[in-house]
């Protein structure tokens, strides 16, 4: 039987992920309201494990606790998790930073822009407006340094991933996959529907050890013109030339 912890309105389950890692599962479904609990758990676990903690990775519904086997046995790690999360209460998610991200939405750098609009029964301008009208929660970091998984995209514009991923997606590309949205921090493969491009340098922050986006932050996309994008040093090379 998997250990569980009753804490207020949630049932926390603990699963073995490796000989020195435990997965703490708080929820089964993705929801923006989860983050108040995930962040609270993150803070409590870091404080309780102290030097015995090697890494802690929060995500949509879980937290991966990687601990030092020389400082804590499996049983002791379970006890530390129980101690940290007993009586857990959600934090104030308003404490996260709100990031304003300027985006040049254009088919030349966002090849799926017309496709996603057509699928949603919207004009391109209406799609852009839809994508910009919500403050997206940063649920997790992964895939590449500084890459933040954000959501939830309105169901009206949610779009499945590409059947065939691109071998190269330009740094700064802003895309949608199902009800998630994200920014590619550097040139990499990818299968998301690309709508546009930003010049915000996520990877530069990650290289300094301090990612721009953190779980619990919010991102607000803002449409800008090509002139504004170029004036800010944006790369207008069409996506096709990077494929």
Automatic annotation (TrEMBL):
One of the record's GO molecular function terms: ATP binding
Keyword Transmembrane: no
Transmembrane stretches, start-end: none
Source domain of life: Bacteria
InterPro entries in alphabetical order: CT_C_D (IPR003833), Cyclophilin-like_dom_sf (IPR029000), PxpB (IPR010016)
Domain named Carboxyltransferase: residues: 12-213
Keyword entries, A-Z: ATP-binding, Hydrolase, Nucleotide-binding
Pfam families, A to Z: CT_C_D (PF02682)
Protein name: Carboxyltransferase domain-containing protein
Protein's organism: Halovibrio variabilis
Lineage of the species this protein comes from: Bacteria, Pseudomonadati, Pseudomonadota, Gammaproteobacteria, Oceanospirillales
């Amino acid at each position: 039987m998997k250990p569980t912890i009753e804490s207020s309105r949630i049932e926390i389950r603990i699963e073995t992920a490796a000989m020195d890692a435990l997965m703490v599962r708080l929820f089964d479904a993705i929801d923006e309201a989860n983050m108040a609990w995930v962040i609270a758990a993150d803070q409590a676990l870091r404080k309780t494990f102290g030097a015995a903690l090697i890494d802690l990775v929060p995500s949509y519904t879980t937290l991966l606790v990687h601990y030092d086997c020389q400082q804590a046995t499996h049983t002791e790690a379970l006890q530390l998790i129980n101690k940290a999360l007993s009586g857990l209460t959600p934090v104030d998610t308003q404490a996260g930073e709100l990031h304003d991200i300027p985006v040049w939405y254009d088919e030349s750098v966002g090849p799926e822009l017309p496709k996603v609009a057509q699928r949603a029964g919207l004009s391109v301008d209406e799609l852009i407006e839809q994508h910009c009208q919500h403050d997206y929660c940063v649920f997790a970091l992964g895939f590449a340094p500084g890459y933040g998984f954000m959501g939830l995209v309105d169901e009206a514009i949610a779009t499945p991933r590409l059947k065939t991923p691109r071998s190269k997606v330009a740094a700064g590309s802003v895309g949608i996959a199902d009800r998630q949205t994200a920014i590619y921090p550097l040139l990499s493969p990818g299968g998301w529907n690309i709508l546009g491009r930003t010049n915000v340098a996520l990877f530069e922050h990650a290289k300094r050890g301090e990612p721009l986006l953190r779980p619990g932050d919010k991102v607000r996309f803002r449409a800008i013109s090509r002139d504004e994008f170029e004036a800010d040093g944006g790369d207008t090379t069409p996506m096709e030339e990077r494929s």
